[in-house]
Amino acid sequence: MKKNITRKINYLRLNKPLVALLSGVLATYSVNSSAVTFSDIATQVDAGIDYRRVESPIDALWDPIRQGVFFFEDFPTAPGATRGAPGVALLDFDNDGDLDIYVTNGPGVANSLYANQLKETGQLSYVDVGASSGAGAIEQDSSGVCFGDIDNDGDDDILVLGVNESNRLFKNNGDKTFEDISISSTIGNGIHNPSSCTMGDINNDGLLDIYIGNSYNNWSHRLPIMLFGFENLIESNQLFLNAGNNVFTDVSETSGILTQKEITWAVAMVDYDQDGDLDIISADDQGGKLPTKFGGLDVGFIRIYNNDGSGQFTDVTASSGTMQYGAWMGLAFGDLNADGNMDMFASNLGDYSGLFVGGALGIPYAPGDWSSSWYLGNADNQFTRASVGALVATPFGWGADISDYDNDGDADIVYHGGADFATYQDGSNPGAMLLNDGSANFTYDVLALSQSTNHTRRNVRGVVMGDLNNDGFSDIVSVSAQNWPQFAPLVPMLPFPLGSPFDGSATLWPAFFPLDATNPAAGFVWSGIDPEDGTLSVEINSADNDNHWVKIKMLGTKDITEKGSVNRNGIGSIIKFTPQDGQTAMLPVIGGSSYASQSSLEKTFGLGVEDYATIDILWPGGVRNKLYYAHASENILFPEIPCSYADESLNPHEYSHCVLSSLKQIKQQGFIDYSQFYHFYFSALKAYHDYREL
């Protein structure tokens, strides 16, 4: 297969314009017996979703370009992300038990905060309170968003990033309003061009810190993406330590995270080595710069910074197996092959744009170099990039998540995305839904979105998942920067198939047409078609396969129990979930990943046909708690019990006393009832005994 693709690459280089429609590509895929489908309620009038992403100020820079002839050599100076780079987050900002949607927008229009009306009306619909809540950031050209309870007062605060302007931090007042504390917190100091942020406690003091991934100054061109020699325009990422009282200190220069300055699109704080402290992972972009093997230099890696437990980091990329170049865009985490190790998915340029850009710009391409890929972790905390297997090729991607969306007991991959390549927009990703067989072998679930929105016409950026209607199945929310009109043509990206199930949907939007189809050097002229404003897609899971589930929400008990030390959200925890006769699933609780976005902190685990499961928690700081006999359809608030069943220094009496006193304090403050108190208490005793019987 690789030899065949290589021959076809040579053909494409000699035929740079698109020359023919793809013909008769028969995509093979498997249909899971427990399949689910999705439908987009955002198109329904009564849903209350009216989001439209407005243009960024730099969109005006395209006006003179559209009036003339555009050449390949003009690409590095062409403005990028002119319709914005929106992100989205799922949070329960008003603590009413259902997930709300925060989505960013451009200047002059408030960011939307869609308050879920499920509790109020019994129906899934939304009311936009972005402007009235005080978290609208109306004048900001907003990009990424992340959230967390930075002051441990019981409600989620929101960080909104700004393109070529200050970031905005909104403190939740607990009464459905927010206060802008950007200046007093110091988060709003300075001007950068960030895309993504993530929250987590890097020094285990119970307070959420913030990491921000920056790109380059500024997006009116693409010079650092396309060419070496413009490294001075690349902006360093930033790490802010929470000093308490909603004030942050910039520790970027002293924490060890500035080993390399590259264009970063996605970031995450996750305990990938499961040692009880949060590490930092960033997705960096090679762009159009030649890799080392073709005479250039590899710069775009998935970079890993290992935490020593005190908030000091060491760059371990070279020894971790992720030092492979790519145009890395989005990140997601979980255990894909049920071996107990943390795995990761990273979205990339994709094989279709990799081939097309290679042919058009003369950039060499090797099959698989630009695939959106999953990395499998091992017991030595190293990652191996897995083959995409039967998929053969994968499309471009931005936002991504790992979630068991069919609740069959293994972690699936969802990722969307469309790229802006000036003369065309990549439409190769119809909404990639990758079903797991339980061993990290994936098939394209083509039916999942077959009755939903056509994402090939949406330039999707942010993608998140969570249970919006509280039926125990994960739903998908995505936001696009721009959309291609229904009347406008979609052109096949390649003149030949790759043998992938994505071949039939691998299209592009022709923003420009070649003056001479036989001589692309003659230049390109504007097609005359303007894209439409970006939209929000809210795709609801059909939840009709009868698979069972359990939902888990973490509760850190700093300032709740005497010994509690974990932030209120439990961000940084790792949840392991073992059905009674099934394999163990694992998901981390992350305060921002994907691209420019953050999924729900509440995690849904599939039971398949089973009725009970055991839950094993690794909290930040290393404490381990267990809950036995979690039953199907149960919504569990799992509190940090600051007494680890694995603590060898505690004798049975000391351990029992610690558990009992902690649970009493948690119950006294109304977080659990009597039944839950005893369930956690006897589970803790059993966990202590079972651990010593191993």
TrEMBL record:
InterPro entries for this protein: Crtac1, FG-GAP, Integrin_alpha_N, UnbV_ASPIC
Keyword Signal: yes
Domain ASPIC/UnbV: 570-628
Pfam families for the chain: FG-GAP_3 (PF13517), UnbV_ASPIC (PF07593)
SUPFAM superfamilies: Integrin alpha N-terminal domain
Keyword set, alphabetical order: Signal
Name listed for the protein in its UniProt record: ASPIC/UnbV domain-containing protein
Organism for this UniProt entry: hydrothermal vent metagenome
Source organism phylogeny: unclassified sequences, metagenomes, ecological metagenomes
